[in-house]
Design brief:
Strand order of the largest sheet: 1-2
Largest sheet: 2 strands, antiparallel
Structural class: mainly alpha
Shape: elongated
Number of strands: 2
Helix content: 55-70%
Strand content: under 5%
Order of helices and strands: HHEEHHHHHHH
Radius of gyration: 20 Å
Number of domains: 2
Number of helices: 9
């Protein structure tokens, strides 16, 4: 297909597609003579990934580039893909909040210990959680351990759902893509369902 057809299929304007090619997010099409360049279904699939990470995941072009580089590396194992993707995705998470304090990091480490999450001290989520703990403190609403532990238990159930979906796939490329897309979109899905649950619980408990 030519770029106009790719634009119609993906819903992304041709100039934007060309920009993605220049930025290295999208492989160039195949030159077939003159000014004609052809694209295929792999380009349409990549555009869907880019669009999801931009519009739903709210990632920067730089973060998307890092994630896609991981997916395109045939020598990266599934475990390494998940680790690298998490770190790339975490660069855009909780923006505008300063580095977590030592006190907040200590509290998060306590959560990890109580949850039985071993060998997780260097995971980027530790720093993200610490920054959020500090933000709650600055807002005048320090979080009790019971609150943090409840969130950890919920996070474990969500992680089990993520990995369960990945385990059902046979193709390593599909597994790697779902790791990345699930990490990005799962955060947004979690936020949406949490808001619905808050509204439901508020009504059930008649909180006013």
């Amino acid at each position: 297909m030519v770029i106009t057809e790719l634009a119609e299929l993906s819903g992304i304007p041709a100039p934007t597609i060309k920009y993605y090619v220049r930025e290295g997010l999208l492989p160039a099409g195949e030159r077939v003579g003159g000014n004609r360049t052809e694209y295929d279904e792999s380009h349409a699939h990549r555009l869907k990934l880019i669009r999801a990470m931009l519009e739903v995941g709210k990632l920067s072009i730089g973060a998307i580039s890092g994630v896609l580089a991981v997916l395109d590396d045939p020598d990266t194992t599934i475990v390494d893909t998940f680790d690298i993707a998490q770190r790339a995705l975490s660069r855009d998470t909780v923006s505008g909040i300063s580095r977590g304090s030592d006190a907040a990091l200590e509290r998060v480490d306590g959560v990890l210990d109580r949850a039985g999450w071993t060998d997780c001290a260097d995971n980027p989520g530790r720093e993200i959680a610490a920054r959020v703990v500090d933000a709650f403190d600055r807002a005048g609403h320090p979080l009790p351990d019971s609150y943090l532990d409840a969130y950890a238990a919920s996070a474990q159930r969500m992680a089990e759902a993520d990995l369960g979906a990945i385990a059902e796939l046979a193709d390593p490329t599909d597994m790697a893509e779902l790791m990345v897309v699930g990490t990005v979109l799962g955060d947004t899905l979690s936020a949406g369902l949490r808001r619905i649950a808050q509204a439901y619980i508020t009504t059930e408990r008649r909180i006013s």
